[in-house]
Specification:
The strands form two sheets. This protein has a four-stranded antiparallel β-sheet with strand order 1-8-6-3. The chain has a four-stranded antiparallel β-sheet with strand order 5-4-2-7, with no helix packed on it. The two termini are about 25 Å apart. About 50% of the residues lie in helices and about 20% in strands. It is rod-shaped. By secondary structure, the chain is of the alpha+beta class. It folds into two domains: about 90 residues, RNA polymerase II/Efflux pump adaptor protein, barrel-sandwich hybrid domain (OB fold (Dihydrolipoamide Acetyltransferase, E2P), Beta Barrel), CATH 2.40.50.100; about 70 residues, Orthogonal Bundle (Helix Hairpins). α2 packs antiparallel against α3.
Length: about 170
């Protein structure tokens, strides 16, 4: 979280006409896979500066995508079952208790689907944040980060790349 705030504040800083250094890090915890720039490099806004190992992020995204698919199927089945039970109830062939059970099952399936969609949104966001991009154009002042560096948002976050604005 701290790294995300640092990057956000730097992106919002007004242009002052003098060079200012901005220490950048990732918005998620992980292991640095590659630093793609070197001191002295000129970068444009949006250029990739560094990447984290995306193995766990990609796995979480795939699992979340599959959970959404499975939850969607379960919800559709519960919805169809509720319709069938209501038809049986209207035809006086089942009890109100069975209707309530089908309604509860459908509501639980809907809740599970929404939870799966939320997890999918988080996994997508985390995967996207495993790439550190330049929040503004500038010159790379230093690259204190290195491949294999652990970025931990629960600890003091070390800069991975330092950019200077012109």
């Amino acid at each position: 979280m701290r790294a995300f705030l640092i990057a956000a504040l730097m992106a919002l800083a007004p242009a002052t006409g003098w060079a200012a250094e901005r220490a950048l890090s990732f918005a998620v915890s992980g292991v640095v896979a590659e630093i793609k720039v070197h001191a002295g490099d000129t970068v444009q806004k949006g250029d990739v500066l560094a990447t984290l190992d995306v193995t766990t992020f990609a796995a979480k995204k795939r699992a979340a995508d599959e959970a959404v698919k499975a939850s969607q199927v379960i919800f559709e089945l519960a919805d169809r079952r509720l319709s069938q039970v209501q038809e049986l109830f209207d035809a006086l062939s089942t009890s109100a208790e069975n209707v309530e059970l089908a309604e509860t099952t459908q509501a639980n399936a809907k809740m599970a689907l929404e939870n799966a969609r939320a997890a999918q949104t988080v996994a997508t966001w985390q995967l996207a944040r495993a790439t550190l991009k330049a929040p503004f154009a500038g010159t790379v002042s230093a690259t204190p980060g290195y491949a294999g560096q652990v970025v931990n948002l629960n600890a003091e976050t070390a800069a991975v790349v330092v950019l200077s604005t012109p």
